[in-house]
């Protein structure tokens, strides 16, 4: 029976921490765009196009000025 005097304050502390984290998340707008993750699964073509554009290598040897020694 004496264990309940320890478990109840610990449970209350966990609830207060969880409520505090929830209100922090709402205040920092963590829940402002709930559809973003769902749409990113369906429409991820922008990421693929962006990655392919950033990894392009120069194909024309005239672009590389270091080859003339």
What does this structure look like?
The protein has 69 residues and is mostly helical. The chain is 59% helix and 0% strand. The chain is built from three helices and no strands. It has helices at 4-27, 36-42, 45-54. It is elongated, with a radius of gyration of 27 Å. The model has no long low-confidence stretch (mean pLDDT 76).
Uncertain regions: pLDDT < 50 for 5+ in a row?
none
Task: Estimate percent helicity.
Answer: 55-70%
- How many helices? The count is 3
Radius of gyration: 27 Å
Strand content: under 5%
What is the structural class? mainly alpha
Chain-averaged pLDDT? 76
Shape summary: elongated
Cα-to-Cα separation, first versus last residue = 87 Å
Q: Note the main sheet.
A: none
* Helix and strand pattern: HHH
Give me the count of strands.
0
Brief description of this entry?
This protein is mostly helical and 69 residues long. The protein has helices at residues 4-27, 36-42, 45-54.
Task: Quickly list its features.
69 residues, mainly alpha, 3 helices, 59% helix, elongated, membrane, Cbb3-type cytochrome oxidase assembly protein CcoS, transmembrane helix, Cyt_oxidase_maturation_cbb3
């Amino acid at each position: 029976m004496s264990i309940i005097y320890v478990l109840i304050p610990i449970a209350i502390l966990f609830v207060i921490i969880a409520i505090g984290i929830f209100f922090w998340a709402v205040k920092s707008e963590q829940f402002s765009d709930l559809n973003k993750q769902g749409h990113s699964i369906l429409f991820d073509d922008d990421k693929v196009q962006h990655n392919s554009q950033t990894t392009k290598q120069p194909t024309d040897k005239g672009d590389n000025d270091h080859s003339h020694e």
